[in-house]
Each structure stands twice: as C-alpha cells, then as structure tokens.
C-alpha cells in the first residue's frame, strides 16, 4: 500500500491541488493540479513540496521570453540546458531513469536559462565541450558541474559509479574490477584496478592526499 500526505486544496506557487491522481512507476504520488493560467496538469507530489514544479509550464515560458529569441532555440548551449532539465524532470524522457528517476535534480537557480548561460560562459564553455557532474550521485549545479571533452567523458563509459558511493571509485563491468582514479586539472593523474573495493577506496584517499596535499 502506498502512503502519501494529502495535498488536496493546497497551493504551490501557481498550482492549486485538485485531487489525488494515483502514482507513477517509481511509486511516487501524483496530483491533479489547476494552474493560475487555467490549464490542468498531473504533478509529482515531491516536486510540488520542494518547489521544483511551480506551474503547468507557463512560468517556464514566461521566464524564457526574450532569452530564446536572443540565443535561438538552435543554440548548442540552450539545447544542453534544455536536455539537462528534460533528463531530470520529464518522466517520459528516455534517460529519466538514470537521472530524475534516481533523484538527480537541477538546482533552482538553473531552472532559468540566463543564470545557467552566465555560469557556462564564465566557466570555460566552448563548442565541443559537454557538461559533466563531478559527483555522480549529486545534481546539476554550479558547485558540482564542469565542462569536459567527449574524450574525457568516455573514460566513464564502462563504469558504474552508482554501485560505489565513493568518489573516484567505480566498477568496471567488463574487467569485473574496481577502478580507482584521481582527476586533477581535468586530467587523470592516477588510475589503478583493484579486486577489493576497500583497497581501491584506500588508494584513492592516499593519492588525493598526495596530489592535493
């Protein structure tokens, strides 16, 4: 049996909760809401309570009026921003299970394009670079993101950091070993494979203490 806090009659930003609407495949309570603009939408209760969803989508359009015309929806940076939000908030997105489905979110500041654009341009964004989260189990935000080449990101392709929980330690699915690494100034400065998880964790901590003093 699924338990949930009754949100009927409550108001969250532009949304007024009308009634309970069941639950999604992740067993999260869904609520039918009426937006101030007159449109109805089905929203995850947790997203209402934390302020992640504030309207049926009309607020998003208003906040980005002018911005999309300025940079163009064909802008590569704009597409990166839109894709990031889709992965984290749209349950129909093909990558949702790997992001929003496991709790990865976009920080409130980056829910608008302009702050994200300003951060990107002042933190090394360039054509050919992609956005990457430093901590795999944390969300998108200024303190946890950086720009990397696709070659840098390819290093992570065969690993499953979510099985580790330790920074710098990943499981290599083909070698069936724990991979320990330390990245400094966007380069892998230490890497080694281990049969035992604890050994990999210890090695990373030792190398980080040496490299970062």
Describe this structure in words.
The protein has helices at 45-49, 58-63, 67-71, 76-89, 113-122, 150-154, 197-211, and strands at 11-12, 15-23, 29-35, 40-44, 129-133, 145-149, 169-172, 177-184, 187-194. It is an alpha+beta fold. The protein has three domains: 1-63, no CATH class; 69-154, no CATH class; 157-213, Up-down Bundle (Single alpha-helices involved in coiled-coils or other helix-helix interfaces). The strands form three sheets. A four-stranded antiparallel beta sheet has the order 1-2-3-4. A three-stranded antiparallel beta sheet has the order 7-8-9, covered by helices on one side. The chain has a two-stranded antiparallel ribbon with strand order 5-6. Strand 8 (177-184) and strand 9 (187-194) form a beta hairpin. The chain is globular, with a radius of gyration of 20 Å. Mean pLDDT is 82; it is low at 65-70 and 155-162.
Give a short account of the largest sheet. 4 strands, antiparallel
Structural class: alpha+beta
Low-confidence stretches: 65-70, 155-162
User: What proportion of the residues is helical, as a percent range?
Assistant: 25-40%
Strand order of the largest sheet: 1-2-3-4
Strand content: 15-25%
**Quaternary state of the chains:** single chain
How much is the radius of gyration in Å? Answer: 20 Å
Shape descriptor reads globular
Q: If you average the pLDDT, what whole number results?
A: 82
Termini gap: 52 Å
Supply the number of structural domains.
3
